[in-house]
Design a protein that fits this description.
Length: about 350
């Protein structure tokens, strides 16, 4: 429900909200135990976009960084195999297995991507990241069709993981594990009759997967592989996703998270300014909990870390005051991105 208080960003409450998730997780998130890295990412990235990364003490920062590195799967000791390398999602599943089952201890593309983004936001120098091993882990997950599986132990393969693989390759500044031509072909084949982009070819177009596809094309410098007609039609499809906030598909309710997924897609195509900022902002603020912090997907429903972060990221895209700039392709702040570029320069000087 919108009221006078909810017209303004509850900055202090949101900082406290994210800090709670970094200290203890509520029982309502127990089903997400195996993907705790993503919760850490939304919380740390949320504090970053709020300009409050210093709310994390040096001691807590070190604990989070050390915990993330404990989740890094290293090459197999017996033969040096790197196909399972990456980051796992939780210490719950970070266990030693016998040789017959060792392939189940493997990295996950989404967890690897969010772990790296979290490390960057915390100012880590990535010196403990086994870059070669992770790139080999990425390479092992690309399919013949050009998309990526999430994990080597068996999982769905779709546009979400193409995006994660592209981000990992960009962050580590190594594209040797990512076949750009195959991935580009997969993305183009996943464009629907309405020119939105789906999870896989011949499925329904979706705002989230359209973002994943566009960000991948942008990171790989392949946006020019879409014709001008395709780009114009895609721009039209995206602009039409605004109702007051944004929806992910036609005839679906609006949802806070699409203020980022669709908003960032429009930003990458240089037409976010054609949307109604005030209408979008008003909807996002309707989902804000002004008392304890957080945003929800719909008004008067429970808040969660994902929608809170993506709501803030969407507001950042339209220039809301009190928020740091978001780099739409990687979904990190400009501050974290500048830190990444300094690491790229350092790595280049060491060659």
């Amino acid at each position: 429900m919108i009221n006078e208080e909810n017209k303004e960003l509850a900055h202090r409450q949101h900082v406290k909200y994210f800090m709670r998730f970094l200290n203890i997780l509520p029982s309502s998130l127990s089903s997400h135990d195996s993907t705790r890295v993503t919760i850490a990412y939304f919380s740390v990235a949320g504090l970053d976009v709020l300009g409050s990364i210093t709310s994390i003490s040096i001691e807590l920062r070190s604990r989070i960084i050390d915990w993330l590195y404990l989740l890094q799967v290293q090459p197999r000791k017996s033969d040096g195999d790197m196909s399972t390398c990456g980051f796992q999602g939780s210490s719950t599943i970070n266990i030693e297995l016998d040789n017959a089952n060792s392939h189940y201890r493997c990295g996950h593309l989404a967890m690897t991507y969010t772990a790296l983004c979290t490390l960057l936001a915390l100012g880590d120098d990535l010196s403990r990241v086994n870059r070669k091993a992770i790139i080999n882990g990425v390479k092992a997950l690309q399919t013949e069709e050009g998309n990526f599986s999430a994990t080597l132990s068996g999982c769905e393969s779709d546009m979400r993981f193409v995006y994660c693989a592209a981000c990992i390759s960009y962050i580590l500044n190594d594209w040797s594990g990512f076949n750009v031509e195959k991935a580009t072909d997969y993305i183009i084949k996943s464009m629907g009759y309405d020119y939105g982009i789906a999870q896989c070819p011949e499925l329904e177009s979706h705002g989230g997967t359209t973002y994943c596809a566009l960000a991948t094309l942008s990171l790989t410098n392949r946006l020019d592989q879409l014709s001008e007609y395709q780009l114009d039609s895609l721009r039209r499809w995206l602009v039409f996703r605004q109702v007051d906030g944004f929806q992910g598909r036609p005839n679906k309710p609006v949802d806070t998270c699409y203020s980022f997924w669709v908003g960032a897609s429009l930003k990458m195509l240089d037409i976010l300014h054609l949307t109604n900022y005030n209408s979008n902002k008003r909807y996002v603020y309707e989902t804000q909990d002004y008392v304890v912090g957080g945003f929800s997907k719909w008004p008067d429903t429970c808040t969660d870390p994902m929608h809170t972060y993506l709501g803030l990221a969407g507001l950042s895209l339209i220039g809301e005051s009190g928020l740091l700039e978001i780099v739409p392709t990687l979904n990190i702040t400009r501050r974290a991105y500048d830190h990444l570029k300094s690491l790229h320069q350092k790595w280049a000087s060491e060659l």
